[in-house]
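pasting for the record
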Amino acid sequence: MREAFDRLGADLRGEIQALGTDLRGGIQVLGTDLRGEIRTSVVEMRAYVDERLQTSTVEMRRHFEVVGESLRGDIRVVAEGVALLSQRVDRGFAEQAGRVGGLDGRVLRLEVRVKNLEDDRKPRRPRPRR
């Protein structure tokens, strides 16, 4: 019986060692396969991210071009409005300057007439005191 147990023990040890060797080999193969899959996934992921980044960049550039063109149009409209307003203000100042010049002339003529009237007038008689 002891011999049977010893043989059984030896057989089991052999099977366990064989299994250990098989497992190590299987794990090494799995490790190699996993490393390969991980590298492939990393390459695919980089390619995907690069593609998405390029697509996003193109879309963003297009969007900013549209926004920029819209802003250019708005700025053009504002600039034209400012130019028109400036012209109106300049015309208003010119009209006011003309009016003021006309008033200056009238005031000057009136001052001359008043001065002439004062010079030609006889001196006032003093009022009698009561």
